[in-house]
Design a protein that fits this description.
seven-stranded mixed sheet, 22% strand, Peptidyl-tRNA hydrolase, single chain, RNA-binding, 6 helices, tRNA-binding, alpha/beta, 37% helix, Rossmann fold, hydrolase
């Protein structure tokens, strides 16, 4: 089973914020695949189906961003999902709004949700789809920025990136991730 994990924060107040770009991609995939989420005992929302002949699961941790690993590790253990079958989708300050970047592995880059996953999974070697949200201007605090909503100028580019990231995830269901990475990072 492939597990797609979108990082974000639960609750209405965080919907459509920069930090919830991962949730937005997962929601787009659920819409495309016509599946609904159920709350799990692992402190997350999960939906699963068979797509292109492969079992897939979508996960939105409800632990808040900084504790995402507390949801994902037990879920992986329960369903016997190998780290090679996990793809994590999240926001990235170091990419401009609307840009996506796929990676096979890497450090947290200062992202607390990724730090939590690295800690709980015991490895940095999991696949990622990063959604660019850009950096704050005018000395705005990073916390306020990532928890803020996209500006009108950013919105179209980011929504296009959400769709493109969902396309990459769909392709990764049956295509080797390195090949998907080469195509979508071009």
């Amino acid at each position: 089973m492939k597990l797609f994990v979108g990082l974000g924060n639960p609750g209405k107040e965080y919907e459509q914020t920069r930090h919830n770009a991962g949730f937005m991609v997962i929601d787009e995939l659920a819409k495309r695949w016509n599946i609904s989420f159920q709350t799990t005992k692992f402190h997350g929302m999960m939906a699963s189906t068979v797509i292109f002949g492969e079992k897939v699961a979508l996960c939105k941790p409800l632990t808040y961003m900084n504790l995402s690993g507390e949801c994902v590790r037990p879920l992986m253990d329960y369903y016997h999902i190998d780290v090679d079958d996990v793809i994590v989708i999240y926001d990235d300050l170091d990419l401009p709004p609307g840009k996506i970047r796929l990676r096979m592995k890497g450090s947290s880059g200062g992202h607390n949700g990724i730090k939590s996953l690295i800690h709980h999974l015991g490895t940095q070697e999991f696949k990622r789809v990063r959604i660019g949200i850009g950096r704050p201007a005018n000395g705005q605090k990073i916390t306020d920025y990532v928890l803020g909503r996209f500006t009108k100028e950013e919105s179209d580019a980011v929504m296009e990136a959400i769709l493109r990231a969902a396309d990459a995830c769909e392709k990764a269901v049956v295509t080797p991730f390195l090949q998907v990475m080469n195509e979508f990072n071009a």
